[in-house]
Structure formats: structure tokens, C-alpha cells
Amino acid sequence: MVEPVLTDLPAVSLTDYAERARTVLSEDVWDYVDCGSASEVTLSANRRALDRVAVLPRMLRGVDTVDLGARLLGRPYAMPVGVAPMAYQRLVHPDGELGLASAAGAAGIPYLASTLGSTPLEQVTRVGADVWFQLYWLRDRALVRDLLARVVAAGCRALVVTVDVPVLGRRPRDLRNAFRLPDHVVAANLPDGRDALAHAGGPGVSALAAHTASSFAPALRWADLAWLRGQIDLPLVVKGVLDPRDAVEAVRVGADAVVVSNHGGRQLDGAPASVTMLPEVVDAVGGDCQVLLDSGIRSGTDVLRALALGAAGVLVGRPLLWALAAGGERGARDALELLAAELTDALTLAGCADPAAAAELRTLNAG
């Protein structure tokens, strides 16, 4: 009897897409997507910490249908999920950013476009999704101003400033692979020539780390964020917060939301799992801004865990890149449909008619 081939069967969990992606990606690209920084302690901690969150379900609540709808930054979405900002999506599939943004639009959720996207922002916004633009702070403030003008002109719904990348975390897998971008993948939102270093790797060197060091401003301060708040009339999201004191400071300078995130374990190795810090951040801001969770989300159960701990929603990263790699836009659409089905099941089993009800659930440490 011939065993069925996994890739010929429908995915039944988001992690199914990982092995499918691994079979179609080159080793260096797989490592780039999969890796964390240093010893990858924080990368693995994200998953362990989420698995330790036990949700106490409620019974006999009369829930027979679930409405996944949620409001993020004052706008209605089909579920409390956004596509995390991820660089160079054309690395994994020709559909790239356009495919993943189209999938997000079909799912009714926001798509976060990266400064380091491999498709120009203006093309991404034309696919019809609600696009939030993720900003890396560039050394040249004039370029920051130019990006802000493009963000407004393109019709983006929010600005998301990533604050946890003063320099790129040291990623041994990329160093061993001497990882560099192929010629057809460029930093399409940066001026001509800004990404030259990203294509010029060598033994023991990450071309992306060199490019980041050349392009990004490492000495970003809260005063810079306050300046930014005054430059743009869009909801402002601060991504990369772990310490509750930083969340409070973000609110002080005008943030409408913060994303509790350790960058998927790709920045400071040894930092705590994002979900570990989520309750403290939620308590610290006290309802003054929305709190989202990023890093390690792999299922509808994980979304429920985040909601029960006080998050307004989550950002999903690697699983959607896996799905994009495995099946292009269609794969990403299927993955988001699967996530919606998982979240529906999780909320139903927990006795919640909608995501807001999950905030009333108790959680326990099951570790």
C-alpha cells in the first residue's frame, strides 16, 4: 500500500505548512525564515510559554454560533488577527507581498507591509486589503519623511513603528550560510541602491545584517517617536515592547496600540517569551491603548490564549510565510481560513460567543 503524500492532503493545522515549505525552499532561505538569534533560546521559549497557558473554559453559556469579528484601532475586522510585517516575501514565492496581502484582504484582516518589503507599498495597497505600514527607522530622516508621505498617499490605515531593531540580532544560521538576497529580490520601498549590501554576502557574513547596519538608525529615542506622532495623522502602533514601562511611555507619546513582541525570537536572545509579558503590559496601560501579541502564534488556540490574557488581537508571522511558500496566494488564503476555523472551535469550546468574551476567561499556568 502506498502511503499518502502529505502535500496532496489538505492542511489540518498551520504547522502542516512548515514541512511543505521546507521541501520547496532552499536551505539558506528556509533557515532565514525559521531561525532565531544567537542560541535561539527565546525562539523556543515563545512556543513553550504559549503551551503553558491553560484556559479555563466556561460551560452552559448557550453558545451555538460564534462571531469572530473584532475592532482593532477602531476599525472592524473579520477576526482579531493581523498578518505580521515580514521582509522580502518574494524570497519564498513569486506571489510575495501581493499574494499575502490579497489573502489578508479576502480574510477581512489587516496586512502589515514591511519597510523591507520586496514589492513597492503602492502596489500592495492596490490589492484591496487594509494595509498598516511597518516602519524601520532609517538613518536619513528625510527618507523617513518620504516614506511617511508615501504611506499617507497610498491609503494605509495605520503606522507601525518597530522599536526592537537598533541592530539586527546575530543569527548564526544566516552567518553560516553567508546569506544574501538573490538578485530578483530587492528592498522595494527604499531608494535605488540602498539595498546593494543585501546582495553582497561572503563567508561568515550576513548580507542582511550589513544592509541593516548601513540603513537603520540604532539610536532611536522616545523623542523621535514623539516627533513621528506629530508628523502623521494615522493610528500609531509601537511594536517590539516587552517591558511594561516602555508600554506606558509609548502611551505617553501618543501610541494607539502596542505590540508585545520579541521579534519572533530574532533579536535579543534570552529575552522573555512575548506571552509571558503580555499580562503585565495589559495591566500597565490600563485600557489607555490596545495591546496586541506577536511571536509564536501557531493556532486558533493560541489566539484564544492571547485574548484571555487581555490582548485585543494577535499578529501571525511565520505560519503564513510557510503557507505562502507552499502554495502562493492560495496557500495563504487556505491557512487563514484554517486559522478562522480553529479560532471558532476554540471560542465555542471555551463558551465564548465572540472574542470580547474571551477576556473574561481565567487562565492558569499549566507548566
Molecular structure report:
This protein is of the alpha/beta class and 367 residues long. It has one domain: Aldolase class I (TIM Barrel). The protein is 41% helix and 14% strand. The chain is built from 14 helices and twelve strands. It has an eight-stranded parallel beta sheet. Strands 1-12 form a two-stranded antiparallel sheet. The protein has a two-stranded antiparallel ribbon with strand order 2-3. The longest helix has 33 residues. It is globular. The termini are far apart. The relative contact order is 0.20. The N terminus is likely disordered.
Question: Any descriptors?
Answer:
alpha/beta, 12 strands, TIM Barrel, single chain, 14% strand, 14 helices
